[in-house]
Amino acid sequence: MDLDDVWRTIDTQRGSLADLLDDLSPAEWETPSLCTAWRVRDVAAHLTQAQMGLRDVIVPALRAGGSFDRMIRDSALRVGPLPDAEYGRRIRAMVGSRRRAPFVSPLEPLTDVLVHGQDIAIPLGRTRAVPPAAAAASATRVWQLSFPFRARRRLAGLELRATDSDLVLGDGAPVEGTSGDLLLLLTGRTAAVGRLSGEGAQRLAAAVGRRDDPMRRTP
């Protein structure tokens, strides 16, 4: 994907996610998301912060003692609670803007909206399509970066191969699935493991639910 394609996809995903949030019932807002200890409302609050400035990042980082996960969680919790309609309004207001948080490439907000969209939709039993090309671009970026997901270390000994794109990552026991499901795997989500196939997928399925499950992580 070229840069314009990345931003067009971000805009489309933000718009459709805002539409989904506008449709949620009071009970759905309080439903646990795929992110440990985060409700759907908390994930939505996090997504409203995709265009934070430098001060918005540094001050919470200092308060969190340098812990990335704690900083992200605390920043999201400080947003709300907001009126239900405000989350979608704030996310929709970012459509058309190329502003992003400090120190990240455009692929980070793409990954955020793709993955967090599933963090919200899957527990609610709602179908939210993930564009294969965008998911493959995000998956490649996550694989390349050692932080925060540490995907290469967690998934060492596995070859991830997409069934709907030319995405191939790693080397070892095969794991096959859609680009979107592989992106969830790379970012530490286990919800799609049952949809993956191959010898490596069997190993992952056996690990899910164990206390030493290497896939567990927060947003």
TrEMBL record:
UniProt name for this protein: Maleylpyruvate isomerase family mycothiol-dependent enzyme
Domain (Mycothiol-dependent maleylpyruvate isomerase metal-binding): residue spans on this chain: 13-100
Lineage, highest ranks first: Bacteria, Bacillati, Actinomycetota, Actinomycetes, Geodermatophilales
GO terms of molecular function: isomerase activity; metal ion binding
Keywords linked to the UniProt accession: Isomerase, Pyruvate
InterPro entries: DinB/YfiT-like, Maleyloyr_isom, MDMPI_metal-binding
